[in-house]
Structure prediction request, 357 residues.
Amino acid sequence: MKTFKLFRHALLLVLVIGLTNISFAQNKDLPHVVILATGGTIAGTAEGSNQAGYTAGQLGINTMIDAAPGIKELANITGEQISNVGSQDMSIDIWLKLAKKANELLASDDVDGIVITHGTDTQEETAYFLSLVVDSNKPIVTTGAMRPATALSAEGPLNLYNAVAVAASPKSKGHGVTVVMNDQIHAAHDVTKLNTTAVQSFMSPIEGQIGSVIYGDIEYFRKPYSTHTTKSVFSVKGVKSLPRVDIIYAYADMPADFVTSSIKKGAKGIVIAGVGNGNMNAATLKEVKKATDKGIVVVRSTRVPLGDVLRNAEVNDDEYKTIVSDELNPAKARVLLMLTLLKDRSLNEIQEIFFNY
Ligand code: SIN
Prediction:
């Protein structure tokens, strides 16, 4: 019995090591791409192949690579399992770990690009965060899947194949962090998930996609417009946590006490997912003014998927000491505000950052 237990433990250990670190035979003529796996539907499984319910983050990186025929002809691939979570459980701790890892790997002459496999729910937040804190002009590509690995017509293997092709290509240098999904290449700043279940879910509704990748064949249409990676002023070197920033969703007749309770819970910044052009009712605006008078930074974003939030249009931002998110949706505005608050900055500086990043 004891021998059997020992054998079982040894087997488990071998499996875990197999899931966490992989490297294949090297061909010196190929670029070197590192895949950092974090979980999500791309690594998800279900009992049947035609059901909507499934569990995200079940497969290890090895299994995902094996499901993408031809991928090892694009690059020498090594891989590491960073986490294996559904991306609703993506955390600041994992972001900091990913940023550290990506900065270390890309500083090495031996690494040409990185692919991060991720759940689609918060993929745009992770991609945007990394685009602000990774200091490299080498490609960093995030990808995922809308259908679990066991589904009929699972699209994860082709997304992974295309993501590795983009990360391995010298054409991708200087494009910052991109999101590769369903044959399209999107800039981290621009992209958002727009459909809960459809394969064509990721779009850049304001700026448009920056390129396409069809079975590994890449075409870029433009470079991202916003500031990123090597030009970014942000760094999380030595940072162990980020200041709390809450998002408050605005709606008709909303109670104003969300703002006060958020501050009581320790928020240093608040993003309002406003109605229309970043608006909120008069009662909430009054609480916002009390908050900004106390030094809490309040950013007006919008729950509307298209269009910029304009400064001093319907709300007098100068008077209320509020910042406008410009093009950033509430989730990305929160990411940028957390990083902005790592240092003391004037409201003017913060506003300039929101106009440029
Ligand atoms: C998740 O975000 O982890 C679940 C949904 C998905 O990956 O599509």
